[in-house]
Automatic annotation (TrEMBL):
Region (Disordered): 175-195
Keywords of this entry: ATP-binding, Nucleotide-binding
Entry's transmembrane regions: none
The keyword Transmembrane belongs to this UniProt entry's keyword annotation: no
InterPro entries listed in its UniProt record: P-loop_NTPase
Gene3D superfamilies: P-loop containing nucleotide triphosphate hydrolases (3.40.50.300)
Protein's UniProt keywords contain Nucleotide-binding: yes
Source organism phylogeny: Bacteria, Pseudomonadati, Pseudomonadota, Gammaproteobacteria, Chromatiales
Species this chain originates from: Elongatibacter sediminis
Name under which the protein is recorded: ATP-binding protein
Gene Ontology MF terms: ATP binding
Length: 195
């Protein structure tokens, strides 16, 4: 039986994460776990300093693990702007009754970049305050080589135009159709090896 796949998306607001998550859900049957949907579900307003905000990422992680436990593919659709958040999403441990149960899944990290002018226009089109969004741009922690070594696969895309989105969709389809390769942790560069 193939391992379930966990795809974590990382990128600034309006970089195309939800579009990619929808593509994965529609084309490949992934369960989409989205922090914006959770905020809406709990009556939280995006961009405010709601005291419950610190809990959102833990609920995202819980729901992702729930999908993986049911042997479903999961895509985490959240900004993932801090390394600690991305580390949490890739923690494949389930804690129950004082025990730790490790899950096994194919872990993919997809980073989405967008040119600044395109990003600003998307924010304006969405009616968002650019000054408020500077918080995200200024504090966003880029994916590190260490993070890339810790996952099974990493892909980085620039999402500025519909043509780029189409190309990205085709490349993601190709990536998902490849057999699962597990990185060799003893090698610094982490070349993939058959599972």
């Amino acid at each position: 039986m193939d391992l379930p796949r966990l795809v974590v998306l990382s990128g600034l607001p309006r970089s195309g994460k939800s579009t990619v998550a929808a593509l994965l859900a529609e084309r490949h049957g992934f369960i989409r776990v989205c922090s914006d949907d959770l905020r809406e579900e709990y009556g939280m307003v995006w961009g405010t300093r709601d005291s419950r905000e610190s809990v959102v990422n833990h609920v995202v992680h819980y729901r992702a693990m729930e999908g993986l436990m049911m042997a479903r593919d999961v895509v985490v659709d959240t900004t993932g702007m801090f390394r600690a958040q991305r580390r949490l999403f890739f923690d494949l441990s389930v804690y129950s009754l004082g025990k730790v149960y490790p899950l096994n899944a194919r872990r993919l990290l997809i980073s989405l970049d967008v040119d600044d002018a395109v990003w600003q226009q998307r924010q304006r089109d969405a009616g968002r305050d650019l000054a408020q969004l500077g918080f995200y741009r200024d504090r966003f922690e880029s994916v590190t080589p260490q993070e890339i070594r810790e996952v099974d696969e990493h892909a980085r895309y620039t999402n500025n135009t519909p043509d780029e989105l189409d190309r990205m969709g085709k490349e993601i389809d190709r990536l998902l159709s490849q057999p699962h390769l597990r990185r060799d942790p003893s090698n610094e560069n982490g070349p993939a090896q058959d599972r």
